[in-house]
From TrEMBL, chain A:
Residues 69-269 form the ABC transmembrane type-1 domain. It comes from Streptomyces hyaluromycini. It is found in: Cell membrane. Pfam families: BPD_transp_1 (PF00528). Keywords: Amino-acid transport, Cell membrane, Membrane, Transmembrane, Transmembrane helix, Transport. PANTHER family: L-CYSTINE TRANSPORT SYSTEM PERMEASE PROTEIN TCYL (PTHR30614:SF0), MEMBRANE COMPONENT OF AMINO ACID ABC TRANSPORTER (PTHR30614). This is Amino acid ABC transporter permease. InterPro entries: AA_ABC_transptr_permease_3TM (IPR010065), ArtM/GltK/GlnP/TcyL/YhdX-like (IPR043429), MetI-like (IPR000515), MetI-like_sf (IPR035906). The chain crosses the membrane at residues 29-49, 69-93, 105-134, 251-272. Its main location: membrane.
TrEMBL record, chain B:
InterPro entries: AAA+_ATPase, ABC_ATPase_HisP-typ, ABC_transporter-like_ATP-bd, ABC_transporter-like_CS, MetN_ABC_transporter-like, P-loop_NTPase. Belongs to the ABC transporter superfamily. PROSITE patterns: ABC_TRANSPORTER_1, ABC_TRANSPORTER_2. The keyword Transport applies. This is Amino acid ABC transporter ATP-binding protein. Gene3D superfamilies: P-loop containing nucleotide triphosphate hydrolases. SMART domains: AAA (SM00382). The keyword Transcription does not apply. Residues 18-262 form the ABC transporter domain. PANTHER family: AMINO ACID IMPORT ATP-BINDING PROTEIN, PHOSPHONATES IMPORT ATP-BINDING PROTEIN PHNC. GO terms for molecular function: ATP binding. The lineage of its organism: Bacteria, Bacillati, Actinomycetota, Actinomycetes, Kitasatosporales. Keywords: ATP-binding, Nucleotide-binding, Transport. CDD domains: ABC_HisP_GlnQ.
Amino acid sequence: MTDTVDKTPAPSVPPEQIKAIPVRHYGRWVAAAVVIAILVLIGMAFSNADINYGIIPDYVTDGTILSGAWHTLYISVLAMVLGLVLGVILAIMRMSSNPVTSTVAWFYIWFFRGTPVLVQLLLWYNIALVFPILNLGFYKDEMNQVMTPFLAALLGLGLNEAAYMSEIVRAGIQSVDEGQTEASHALGMTQPQTLRRVILPQAMRVIVPPTGNEYINMLKTSSLASVVQFPELIKRATDISSTSLAVVEMYFVACIWYLFLTTIFSIVQYYIERHYARGSSRSLPPTPLQRLRKNLSRWGSFRRPEVAR
Amino acid sequence: MSGLAKDITPPSSGAPMVKAEGVHKSFGLAHILKGIDLEVLPREVFCLIGPSGSGKSTFLRCINHLEKISAGRLYVDGHLVGYRQHGDKLYELKEKEVAAQRRDIGMVFQRFNLFPHMTALENVMEAPVQVKRESKAVARERAQRLLDRVGLGDRTGHYPAQLSGGQQQRVAIARALAMQPKLMLFDEPTSALDPELVGEVLDVMRDLAEDGMTMIVVTHEMGFAREVGDSLVFMDDGVVVESGHPRDVLTNPQHDRTKSFLSKVL
């Protein structure tokens, strides 16, 4: 192959790297000093408070608290799953050309977003006032027997979540280019096939980040289920504090668990986002581990990495 | 590079593949198509040219019912598009029936519209597996063959974002061919491409024409129309201004509007 375009020969000696004195960021040092001072002040205030910190570590792994943390975890996961499934259905109903389904969805969202979730929980728990007997034809029982704290918590949290999720899902679906629907229809795919195979997988990229946010919110909102006697973290913590009189200490214990759970799920969310980033960019973003390593090496040199990403 | 022929469903009769009778289309108050009459014969390469906004893309989209026509009749392979006629009453087809009609009509878009979350191979396999319920093995085998034919046999695992525009459009053509259509619609397939990538897409289309595919091509590529086209229609403002063999229309236009348009694009 003859190549007439003249190529500059690869230089055998690499050019001398620029060695310049980097811009000094004195402001950062001042800011860091101020932040540390404030943290010290806050720490001192807390350590001088009338709080018995000594008992906190013991209670973090206390059996009652562990059971509470487990209940918080599973009620928030189940309520979120219910919210997600119902949210997708509601979003599709809302965007449907069928005026009946879209109106039903609109009213659902209007009601469940418009009333406090605390009231919704209490309503579910006391649903026997409205329907004393549950009769499904094949199954009949007194509502008070059916509506356990678990079911009230699940319905109260899940149905409320569905209203928020439907708006997130709708935003995700609308973010997908219309050409995708056209291409799918032109290939002979029906609307349900188009949604499932083409639109939703792409909408997930927009749906996942706010859903992670919703889930973390749900972890903490699930504490409201304590009012319907569901034995989650806050309920357990207050149970203990009512006998041990260590009220604030028990809330600290609960907070440690909330922080732990939200941290774990932030990490899970990150990997879900990576999964749905498939095909959207030429290279995937680094994992937290890769980022940690990078940040550590950055700390070592204590300045910005020279290589642009 | 011939050999796409076995993926072409032969037309069921010698009748026109597409027949338009007084087709009108309005979007609200905007009257886009104002009575289109034309016939596209089987194995014909039918080129539609005209200024933007003349309605040529809208007409193309009516053929596979992506747009509903407002008046007139439109037939593909002898069947009314989007409707069923009983006596003198028209019944709208159900969504499933419309989808079934579209199976036999491939479409290639200006902006490719590949599915970005699927690899090239998965893009081509998607419709045969989902719509025709073909086994994955059969669909994969054909998808591989089609990608080979459009010169992308070594790019099957790439996502659309990893392909150039010309490569994406060739995958899009392979995707449409995977349904073994009897008619292919091309909506300005090279308009979104860098000039040096236009040729590779036109080459694939030329091969397809040689293999006897019935094609309706909305294009600004006058060279392609002259060389490959069997018929050419010049549309302006929602009507067919002039039609005939591409050589005749392009070299010896009869109407002033055709002349002024061609003087700008040639």
